[in-house]
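job 3f2a | input accepted
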Amino acid sequence: MTVNGWRVADSDMHVMEPADLWERYIAPEWRHAAPIGLAELHRDMRVRVKGSVLTRVAPAKPSFDVTVGWKPNQDSAFAAAEARGWDATSQLQAMDDEGLDVAVLFPSRGLFVLGLDSSEVVGPEGLEPALAAAIARAYNDWLHDFCAQDPARLIGAGLLAPHDVDLAVEEIGRCVDELGFKTVFMHPGRVKRRPWHHPDYDPIWAECERRGIAVCFHGGGQNALRPDYTLDFDSMMLWHTFGQPVGIMAVTASLTGGGVLHRFPGLRVGLLEGNCGWAPWLLHRLDEHWEWVGGLDAPELDRPPSEYFRSSCFLSIEADELPARFYVEQFGDDNLVFSTDYPHGDSKYPDAVSGFLDLPGVSEESKRKFLWDNWARLFGV
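job 3f2a | predicted structure (381 res):
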């Protein structure tokens, strides 16, 4: 399948996992604590984990009978997939309808399910590290079965639980060796209050670098991790504006300015669903601060943070992202990958690819790279 003679890859397509995924797939010793997906709302993506509902519940409103987070005209677009229970057959049909050759699959409920800090920090309301790892393993096993419908087109992104770094490293190996995934990912929120450049995380970066597998970050929803990148706003219009990009910005600063990419120069990082137009400003400001106080705060860095970013990081571009032209002017076209965000409410499906091809201010050659070449480099395909 080609568009304009180009192959087309989606760096960030979502599955709508079933509400009982963890009840069916979690290890028997943890079944009593399995997360439970909620189904009280139309297209409910929330999940109950121990005593918490994630994503956090919005303020109650009277006669609230609309589908939260979707536009009315999307009902018809998603009707066929919804009727099939969002199964793998419907995923492949959606890819055909959108014009996608291949897609890397990220979760929906799974974006929230590990959104509790470690019980070692917050007590019994948090996630026990071994339980967090079991939750990740269960999702990954389900996703492997989902992708088995067509492994050449459906590529899994394995969920990691950083609550226990040693178990996360083990899961990287399992995702690669047993499940055939091409990437692993984590939520930008901090676990145990540790920034991502904390040396405790170095075994994760070392294992991904050793195996040549990309590590991705993908936010989602409002959870109990801190800091709250959604800035504690109480309406989706406001919190969703900030949550995705601000979380990705914080990870970018931590990995580049915090020395991770200096220590692990072969690491490839995907920073997804946070847009790209902010990057020229943020990295300019980060470079300024490196020049100003880097000698004291980051003496190990031998070049500006933006240079580490150029060498190792990829951001996603969405179909109608007009500010992307400013990114290309500053950083060129080697570090952006295309995303549809299907089937979430801010997706442009089934017109994401066609809309992207009409995006002004970006050359045809750059669009071709975003649709395939850069994706292949990020995911090692």
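job 3f2a | Residues 2-379 form a domain with the TIM Barrel fold (CATH 3.20.20.140).
job 3f2a | closed
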